[in-house]
Write a structure and sequence with these properties.
single chain, alpha+beta, Helix Hairpins, cytochrome-c oxidase activity, mitochondrion, magnesium, Cytochrome c oxidase subunit 2, metal-binding
Length: 221
């Protein structure tokens, strides 16, 4: 869960989110090096007394400053494309769940089981604006496929720790998958302005082990 003084990402709870954090660190390192180099050149030019009025061209220098950005972009493009494909990969999911957005609550349906569906409303508890009456319970180390849509207006089902953000659009079924890699309770909120009570439709995902998930499923049947 995010806190007031947390200026970075939340601790990852899925393999995709780990990859995104690694890519962010890698990109930030490259951007920082470029920034330091540009600032150094600017300062050097401001304090330098050397003049190059008679230098009309430099083929080697032009080749370097043309090819170097291309190489940097290649190094950033490959991991970025890899993460995009990992996020879209939906192959042999262990569990498929359907999520419907409403004004202003969420509905969950476990499509692989009969009659397991419930609504999730915000309640006033210890954690302000983030507690719900019914958590979305999922097993750890399992490929989960989510089918997301909406009954009324645009919503967005978002859980930052899991690296999941998918639009909830009326008349359209969006699909996303993830695999949680640790136990815990993870919080999110609707990330698309959807009306007066947009701030009051939180998301709580509870990741449990397979045994406890089976017990929970049996209690819901």
């Amino acid at each position: 869960m995010n806190t007031w003084m947390n200026l970075s990402f939340q601790d990852s709870a899925s393999f995709v989110m780990e990859e995104m954090i690694f890519f962010y660190d890698f990109s930030f390192l490259i951007i920082s090096l470029i920034l330091v180099f540009v600032v150094y050149i600017m300062v050097f030019l401001m304090i330098s007394n050397f003049l190059s009025r008679f230098v009309l061209d430099n083929q080697v220098l032009e080749f370097i400053w043309t090819s170097l950005p291309f190489i940097i972009l290649i190094f950033m493009a490959f991991p970025s494309i890899r993460i995009l494909y990992l996020m879209d990969e939906v192959k042999s999911p262990l569990l498929t769940c359907k999520i419907m957005g409403h004004q202003w609550f969420w509905s969950y349906e476990y499509s692989d089981f009969d009659k397991i569906e419930f609504d999730s409303y915000m309640i006033f508890n210890i954690i302000r604006l983030l507690e719900v009456d019914n958590s979305f319970v999922l097993p750890v180390y399992s490929k989960i496929r989510l089918l997301v849509s909406s009954y009324d207006v645009l919503h967005a089902w978002t859980v930052p720790a899991l690296g999941v953000k998918v639009d909830s659009i009326p008349g359209r079924l969006n699909q996303i998958s993830f695999t949680a890699n640790r136990l815990g309770v993870f919080y999110g909120q609707c990330s698309e302005i959807c009306g007066a009570n947009h701030s009051f439709m939180p998301i709580v995902v509870e990741i449990v082990n397979i045994k406890n998930f089976g017990i929970w499923i049996a209690s819901m049947l």
